[in-house]
């Protein structure tokens, strides 16, 4: 019989068939844990039983149950992917490698964003061809979302989505040599919710030894809910479903019902006497921790990990411009937002206005939102990591402005991703409703950003001075 042309890799769980293309080899939908069904949706990730024969790794995975997301005229499908693609076995990874040999190449493990409720490895933006082309093994991870992933409840471990990412990292440690990767040269990187999860790993004792470097793109080191805030969400979810707030009761409810409850949970008032809502009502789910990751780095591997961290200069635009709330913003809207996120709202608005005296109310509202969601928690994380790691922290700012939506979208949340993955010239990211807008991406910017990420994964040095809280150093991309 003729040899099958597609590559086959032997892993500890069984053999997987992938495909070969111009960038190397790709293997999709490889389980790193057992399918989370029934009560298992609220249990820690369990080992996968493995399989006999050769598993088909040429087709994409099912995805975690998730709602559809709508950003008005802006086409965000490259970011969110296809939404919920049904199937039990969605705790999977995709692997892109130059070759499944004994190469021991740098490994990058990507944790997607989507507000802890959406996203998957199937999103077009996470195509790893450019990483494989440049000698990196890229692993992208699906994890539990929404109520199964992050609702805190009696009888279930907290932060199950984070436990999934830890299980995927153990899979990488044990399996990646078969795909040509070096388990001692692993970089975890994430964006948005995935970046906040990455930051939490830095403070997680069980993460020690699983990775050497981390990249936090538009996340927050102070983005976790307090236990009291989490209880409010759980109470609302249980009341909406008419059940007790226990894992046993939630286990009897199908995933469809969970998705139907999400509108009732979004916009809850989570402010307490000790904490504001770190997600400003945009998502009812986050990590649940007694101490914020930026304050608990000594508990985890952070001191031994190189960190690359940053934000975009107009993060808040994504939540205002596509919804036509940017131009319509008033001074009253700015103050109302400041009251949500700060103990001294007038002083906060005054500080933003002093920094940008010519700013419109929409620009001020975006700035307050971006600082609350990402900026302040990123700065805390960068300073905290620099203090314990001795010159191993590098900070960036992404300033290239998308011309989408009549030139108004700007350097908003998510626009760095096409440059990180070196996809910025793809036609599906352009046009007035595409993420990057109708104008071509600046020549060389994607090569520079992607090149810095690859260099950091290989050496820990992205190509600029490290961050010191006394002498801050920030590399600016674009703008």
Automatic annotation (TrEMBL):
The keyword Signal does not apply. Keywords: Hydrolase. GO terms for molecular function: hydrolase activity. It holds the Pfam family COesterase. It comes from the Bacteria. Its EC number is 3.1.1.-. Residues 6-464 form the Carboxylesterase type B domain. Residues 1-22, 38-72 are annotated as: Disordered. Belongs to the 'GDXG' lipolytic enzyme family. This is Carboxylic ester hydrolase.
């Amino acid at each position: 019989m003729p040899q099958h042309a597609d590559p086959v890799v032997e892993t500890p769980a069984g053999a997987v068939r992938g495909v070969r293309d111009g960038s190397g080899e790709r293997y999709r939908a490889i389980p790193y844990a057992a399918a989370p069904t029934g009560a298992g949706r609220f249990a820690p990730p369990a080992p996968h039983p493995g399989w006999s024969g050769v598993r088909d790794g040429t087709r994409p995975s099912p995805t975690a149950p998730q709602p559809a997301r709508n950003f008005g005229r802006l086409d965000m499908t490259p970011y969110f992917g296809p939404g919920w693609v049904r199937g039990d076995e969605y705790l999977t990874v995709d692997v892109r490698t130059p070759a499944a040999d004994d190469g021991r190449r740098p490994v990058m493990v990507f944790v997607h964003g989507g507000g802890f409720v959406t996203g998957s490895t199937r999103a077009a933006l996470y195509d790893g061809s450019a990483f494989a082309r440049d000698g990196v093994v890229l692993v992208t991870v699906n994890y539990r979302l929404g109520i199964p992933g992050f609702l805190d409840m009696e009888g279930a471990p907290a932060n199950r989505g984070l436990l999934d990412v830890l299980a995927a990292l153990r899979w990488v440690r044990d399996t990646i040599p078969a795909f040509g990767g070096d388990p001692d040269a692993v970089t975890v990187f994430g964006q948005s919710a995935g970046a906040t999860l990455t930051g939490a790993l830095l403070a997680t004792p069980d993460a020690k030894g699983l990775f050497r470097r981390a990249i936090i793109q538009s996340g927050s080191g102070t983005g976790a809910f307090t236990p009291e805030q989490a209880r409010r969400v759980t109470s609302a979810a249980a009341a909406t479903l008419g059940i007790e707030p226990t894992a046993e009761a939630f286990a009897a409810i199908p995933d469809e019902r969970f998705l139907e409850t999400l509108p009732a949970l979004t916009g809850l008032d989570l402010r307490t006497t000790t904490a504001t809502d770190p997600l400003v009502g945009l998502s009812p789910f986050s990590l649940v921790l007694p101490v914020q990751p930026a304050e608990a780095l000594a508990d985890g591997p952070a001191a031994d990990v190189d960190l690359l961290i940053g934000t975009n200069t107009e993060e808040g635009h994504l939540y205002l411009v596509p919804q036509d709330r940017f131009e319509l913003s008033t001074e009253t809207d700015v103050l109302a937002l400041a009251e949500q996120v700060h103990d001294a709202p007038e002083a906060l608005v005054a500080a933003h206005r002093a920094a940008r005296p010519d700013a419109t109310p929409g620009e001020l509202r975006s700035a307050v939102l971006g600082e609350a969601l990402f900026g302040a928690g990123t700065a805390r994380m960068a300073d905290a990591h620099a203090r314990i790691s001795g010159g191993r922290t590098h900070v960036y700012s992404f300033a290239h402005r998308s011309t989408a939506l009549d030139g108004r979208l700007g350097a908003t949340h998510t626009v760095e991703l096409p440059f990180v993955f070196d996809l910025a010239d793809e036609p599906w990211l352009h046009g007035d409703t595409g993420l990057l807008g109708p104008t071509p991406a600046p020549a060389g910017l994607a090569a520079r950003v992607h090149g810095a990420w690859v260099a950091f994964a290989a050496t820990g040095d992205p190509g600029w001075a490290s961050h010191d809280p006394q002498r801050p150093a920030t590399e600016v991309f674009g703008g």
